[in-house]
């Protein structure tokens, strides 16, 4: 019951209460990989990255084939630009289980971006885009790659699409302005 309440709060974007109930669930059954996974995602959304990493690592220890946990932990590392070889390995394992998952394809592409391999990054993130063309994160990542490759018109287009889907992203407005200035 605690897990279900935590899940309801999590789906309602109430991460504080979700964390509380996932922790109560784990007090009863510390071997619950799903509770550890969702606790980790709630922590990440709250900005508690070290606690998120701890919980996601625990979920993977309990279920080494937890593709979502493998991907999520790998993506956190990629976003932070750290443990990139571990991130690559984690996300590759997730992709072995679900090779057509757009989120996983985006994640591995983002690892390659962080490693400076923009061609490989573009290959994977374009595949992700073909699976989920309206995802604002994938659009943003495509814009970043095109920008690094000097394809400013495509970068601008993808960032504008991303901003249209997720208008609250102030960082995108800055990227768009910078690209416009460089195009002129």
């Amino acid at each position: 019951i605690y897990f279900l309440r935590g899940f309801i709060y999590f789906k309602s974007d109430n991460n504080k209460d979700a964390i509380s109930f996932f922790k109560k669930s784990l007090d009863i059954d510390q071997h619950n990989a799903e509770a550890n996974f969702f606790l980790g995602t709630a922590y990440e959304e709250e900005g508690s990255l070290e606690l998120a990493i701890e919980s996601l690592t625990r979920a993977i220890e309990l279920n080494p084939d937890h593709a979502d946990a493998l991907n999520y932990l790998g993506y956190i590392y990629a976003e932070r630009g750290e443990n990139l070889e571990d991130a690559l390995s984690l996300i590759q394992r997730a992709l072995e289980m679900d090779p057509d998952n757009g989120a996983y394809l985006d994640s591995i592409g983002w690892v390659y971006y962080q490693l400076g391999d923009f061609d490989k990054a573009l290959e994977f993130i374009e595949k992700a885009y073909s699976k989920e063309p309206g995802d604002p994160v994938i659009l943003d990542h495509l814009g970043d790659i095109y920008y690094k490759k000097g394809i400013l018109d495509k970068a601008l287009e993808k960032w504008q699409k991303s901003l249209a889907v997720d208008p609250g992203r102030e960082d995108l407005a800055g990227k768009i302005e910078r690209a416009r200035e460089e195009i002129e």
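The mean pLDDT is 95. The chain has eleven helices and no strands.
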